[in-house]
Structure formats: C-alpha cells, structure tokens
C-alpha cells in the first residue's frame, strides 16, 4: 500500500495541485521522504509554481539536498529555466551560493542552459545569496509585493517595490533585501517574473 509520503511526492511530481493541497491539509508532512529518499519539493514539477507555493506554505525545507548529487531545488529550477519557481524558493530562504557534487552553482547551470532571465535574476540577487527571508520566514508569511511606481532612467526601467503591512515576525531587513533583488532588473523581466501580482503605475 502506498504511503502518504509517497502519495504526496507523486502528486507533487505530476503537478496535481488539488491533491497536493488535500494531502497537506490532511496533515501529511512536506518534509517526509518518499520510498526513494526524496522529499516532495525535490521531485515536484518544477514548472508548477502553485505546487511549489503550497509545499513551502506548509513548511517544506527549500534547502534540502540530494544525498548523492548534492543538488538542491534551486539547482533544478536554474537548470530547467524556471525563473518564477526559483524566485519563490529564494524568497522562502533557499540559498543561491551552494554547489552541487560537480562544483556547480545555480548560476552555472542557468548559463549552461542559456536561460538569460534566470541568469539576470541570479546576478541581481548575488548580494543576498542566502535567501530573501530570515530563518523561519517562508513565502507564506511574505506579504504581497506591490509596485509603487515605474519610471524610465536612461535605457532602463526601474521599479520601486514595497510591501503591505508587515506581518508578525517579518523584519524590515527582509523587505529591503527582496527589493534589492529586483532593483537592477530590466522592467520587462520584472513584469514577466511577477506576472499578475505586479501592477505598474502609469
């Protein structure tokens, strides 16, 4: 009989958001490994941001690593070019300055794959490689990002970001660090990254 951990890992791997949600709400831990020793966030469908958010919302560890390859979810997201998933992981505290067993950083994998938008984000986030959030702060606790204004500065469009009312336990340094990650990104990349959350003022 399939264990609940195996069911959650399989649902995450197949991108079945509703099943993932139901299992998590039923109390299945997102950090219990499946029969192959992998947690749901390690085997999840990387392109499904909703599954990633759900797992992190329920306490999935974003820095878990494969015992053989030392690869972490950020390595997988960078390798495959899933920018939004990478950002979600980073905002939940995932480190970007970590090497896999072959000595490669997420940046190396993004460059090898030709994922320019991922490379741009990783360069911009380079000053905060340990994740946007301090210990204990997950994306579930991160308030919505809102764009206050957009303006042209030379050939670059810069967006000043701010956050809603801080939730309990959210430090001001956390809000500032997220803003720094986006400060030097081209406007087009920011719009692609934040999607419907980002509303540029005219």
UniProtKB/TrEMBL annotation:
Organism field: Phodopus roborovskii (Roborovski's desert hamster)
Cellular component GO terms, alphabetical = cytoplasm; nucleus
GO molecular function terms listed in the Swiss-Prot or TrEMBL record: cyclin-dependent protein serine/threonine kinase inhibitor activity; protein kinase binding
SMART domains assigned to the protein according to its UniProt record, in alphabetical order? ANK
KW Nuclease (keyword) present: no
Q: Show the PANTHER family listed in the entry.
A: ANK_REP_REGION DOMAIN-CONTAINING PROTEIN (PTHR24201), CYCLIN-DEPENDENT KINASE INHIBITOR 2A (PTHR24201:SF4)
Family, similarity comment:
Belongs to the CDKN2 cyclin-dependent kinase inhibitor family.
Q: Which domain of life is it from?
A: Eukaryota
Q: Return the Pfam families for the record.
A: Ank_2
Q: What is this protein called?
A: Cdkn2a protein
Q: Which UniProt keywords apply?
A: ANK repeat, Cell cycle, Repeat
- Tell me, which GO biological process terms does this entry list? negative regulation of cell population proliferation; regulation of G1/S transition of mitotic cell cycle
Q: What SUPFAM superfamilies does this protein map onto?
A: Ankyrin repeat (SSF48403)
């Amino acid at each position: 009989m399939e264990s609940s951990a195996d069911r959650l890992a399989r649902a995450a791997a197949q991108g079945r958001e509703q099943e993932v949600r139901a299992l998590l709400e039923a109390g299945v831990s997102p950090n219990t490994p499946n029969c192959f020793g992998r947690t749901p966030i390690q085997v999840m469908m990387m392109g499904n941001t909703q599954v990633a958010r759900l797992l992190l919302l329920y306490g999935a560890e974003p820095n878990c690593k494969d015992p053989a390859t030392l690869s972490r979810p950020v390595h997988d997201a960078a390798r495959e070019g899933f920018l939004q998933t990478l950002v979600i992981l980073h905002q939940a505290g995932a480190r970007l300055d970590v090497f896999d067993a072959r000595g490669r950083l997420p940046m190396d994998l993004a460059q090898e794959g030709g994922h320019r938008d991922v490379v741009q984000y990783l360069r911009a986030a380079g000053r905060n490689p340990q994740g946007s959030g301090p210990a204990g702060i997950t994306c579930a606790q991160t308030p919505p990002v809102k764009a206050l204004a957009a303006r042209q500065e030379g050939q670059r469009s810069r967006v000043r970001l701010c956050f809603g009312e801080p939730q309990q336990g959210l430090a001001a340094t956390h809000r500032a660090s997220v803003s720094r990650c986006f400060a030097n990104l081209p406007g087009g990349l920011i719009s692609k990254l934040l999607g419907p959350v980002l509303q540029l003022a005219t």
